[in-house]
Amino acid sequence: MSKPLLYSCWMSSCAWRVRIALHLKQIDFNVKTISILKTGEPGDQYSEEFEKINPMKYIPALEIHGHTLIESLSIINYLEEAYPKRRLLPKDIFQRTKARAISDVICSGIQPLQNLKVQKFSRPDGNLNFEWASFWISQGFSSLENILKESTGDYCVGNEITMADCCLVPQVANARRSSMF
Fold first, then answer.
1. Cα within 13 Å of Cα(124), Cβ side
2. Which domains does the chain have, with CATH numbers?
3. Where are the alpha helices (DSSP H) in 25-162?
4. How far apart are CA 60 and CA 16, in angstroms?
């Protein structure tokens, strides 16, 4: 059986969360780097070759077990089911739901607003709109802090690493890198 192949980029929080999950589950994998930001031109995710891999033209994508998976949370959920060793979702149904909810808040309520395509669209001149994104990302993190008050232990949900932690770490790093947090 060949190693899974992850289409990834160092600056993508979405790809980063999948890399964390793969490492936590001790799954050996290969990486194909996709440059998502090129000076003066679209990144490699817009190539015809990559569009065949992911019609949405986003990373990550994971080739595994003869299939190509897209969307980071969907990939992490697949890994959770296919590789039960080193669980990323708690056994308790309410804790599991909390981990998924925190992941969704990060992936749906915070991350898209720091996406370069979204920032460019938010300005008539097409330039990046860090001020606008920073405001909404700060709002998202503020809400997330209130959610985490009810569930944290050593990690986002209790005392074991979950998929919520796989999502949180890259998101905070990206916000800091972009001076948005």
1. 0
2. 5-82 (3.40.30.10), 93-177 (1.20.1050.10)
3. 48-53, 72-82, 93-104, 111-114, 116-121, 130-149
4. 9
Give Rg (Cα) of the chain. Answer: 17
CA 150, chain centre distance (Å): 23
How far apart (Å, rounded) are the C-alpha atoms in residues 66 and 81? 16
pLDDT digits (tens, 9 = 90+) for 8-34: 988 888 999 999 999 999 999 999 988
Q: Answer yes or no: are the C-beta atoms of 20 and 13 closer than 8 Å.
A: no
**Angle at Cα 144 formed by Cα 164 and Cα 23, nearest 5°?**
20
Given a contact cutoff of 8 angstroms between Cβ atoms, the answer to whether 157 and 103 are in contact is no
Q: How far is CA 95 from CA 25, 108, 140, 163, in A?
A: 19, 20, 21, 11
DSSP assignment of 51-70: HHH-TT--S-EEEETTEEEE
Write the Ramachandran bin of 92: left for phi over 0, alpha for psi from -120 to 50, otherwise beta: beta
- Please, is 181 exposed, middle or buried when counting C-beta atoms within 10 Å of its C-beta (0-12, 13-18, 19+)? middle
pTM: 0.88
